[in-house]
Design goal:
The protein is an alpha+beta fold. The chain has 12 helices and 16 strands. α6 links the parallel β9 and β10.
């Protein structure tokens, strides 16, 4: 089955029609079976790899002339390097099984008009010496590659490809993550998770989405949407299913009767303001061994201005001895982090810090201190980390 991008892009259709062995893998375009001469004057085959600039299911004019190459150094028929296109000679792992050994630079005065022009020109330059040795070799195999395994995204993640971090993003793939509480912080957590390769994002919250929620949440709800008073999880699932295929709403609260619904998860984000419910959820997560992050936000008015404290607490079955002093777990506590004042940017910061910590756990970001408690105060702009583990 042909890739939808090929069906909607005339330049890719032309490559395929002329027999080039093209493949779309993630946000990359590959042309396979390109013949070339190596340093030993042998004819070998490699693949051209280009990032893609897309708008929906259609290619745009290439934004870079750089090309990556999976084979060894292409040479003239006498075994000397083709230096005219030489750019960078090092190994680059782009993820999804794509490993480049060299990068080339061949820039026309006005750039490449489309991906047919770009891919065919590089194929011509690299394959020329091989064809001069054996006129029967060709890059035009007329082999058609089936679409690769289905992505969790509704459209290709070309941002990661452009940044060259698709292999690092692969570390997040396969995770089944839950967000418990879709107030301001939980909604921003969803906004960030929906752009990752996690297998599924489960949303738990029984609250309706009211007008005040619109002023502390990502995006902008319309008056028509507010008038229907949707459940928070349904409202957000409707938005973020536009980018991620597996945003799953659960329009109810978690309690003693349904806590086992969390058991298939690999990680949990907790962003609720009811301490008794928080404790029951935490106890269950610890019991079944699911690591989690608990988010807290407290804002108070002092002398006509606001003072805010943001908290992110990490815990797992192996490290949880700090929870009793870091996380409020009783509804009658004088809770520093329980406040009706919520501000969008504070919710956003709270969510971002939590997602950064989650990504550290999975090796996406470096982590030299392995913190399990972080607080940020607005009046001093001070980040404080405690409760470390080796």
């Amino acid at each position: 089955m042909s890739h939808p991008l090929i069906n909607h892009s005339p330049d890719l259709q032309q490559l395929q029609t002329e027999g080039y062995e093209i493949e779309i893998r993630g946000g990359y375009l590959l042309v396979h079976h390109v013949p070339y001469v190596n340093a030993n004057r042998q004819i070998c085959y490699g693949s051209l790899v280009s990032t893609l600039l897309l708008s929906g299911n259609r290619t745009q004019r290439p934004d870079t002339h750089i090309m990556h190459w999976t084979g060894s150094q292409p040479c003239h028929k006498d075994g000397s390097k083709i230096t005219a296109i030489e750019y960078v000679n090092n190994r680059s792992d782009f993820g999804q099984g794509i490993v480049s050994n060299h990068s080339f630079s061949n820039k026309p005065r006005d750039g490449y008009a489309d991906y047919y022009a770009k891919m065919s020109r590089y194929a011509e330059i690299i394959s020329g010496p091989a064809k001069s040795i054996d006129p029967n070799v060709t890059e035009k195999t007329f082999i058609r590659h089936a679409s690769v395994a289905e992505s969790v995204f509704q459209y290709e993640d070309t941002n990661s490809c452009r940044a060259g971090i698709d292999n690092i993003n692969d570390k997040l793939a396969g995770q089944k993550v839950t967000i418990i509480g879709l107030g301001g912080t939980g909604a921003y957590i969803l906004d960030l998770l929906a752009k990752t390769k996690v297998a599924a994002i489960h949303l738990f919250d029984g609250d309706p989405f009211y007008q005040h929620n619109a002023f502390r949440s990502p995006g902008a709800a319309s008056l028509a949407q507010l008038s229907t008073t949707p459940k928070k999880v349904d409202y957000y699932a409707g938005i973020y299913s536009n980018i991620h295929k597996n945003v799953i709403p659960h329009p109810y609260y978690l309690g003693e009767g349904n806590l086992p619904e969390l058991d298939p998860m690999t990680f949990a984000f907790i962003s609720i303001d009811k301490n008794g419910a928080r404790k029951r959820i935490i106890d269950h997560l610890l019991k079944v061994g699911i690591p989690f992050l608990d988010c807290g936000l407290g804002v108070n008015e002092e002398s006509g201005a606001l003072l805010a404290t943001i908290r992110v607490t990490a815990a797992s079955k192996e490290k949880n001895d700090h929870l009793s002093v870091r996380v409020p777990q009783h509804d009658n506590d004088d809770d520093l982090y329980k406040s009706n004042i919520q501000i969008a940017e504070l919710n956003m910061i709270n969510a971002a810090l939590a997602v950064v910590r989650w990504k550290q756990f999975l090796g996406f970001y470096h982590d030299h201190i392995n913190w399990h408690q972080l607080t940020f105060t607005t009046n001093s702009a001070h980040l404080d980390t405690t409760d470390f583990t080796d």
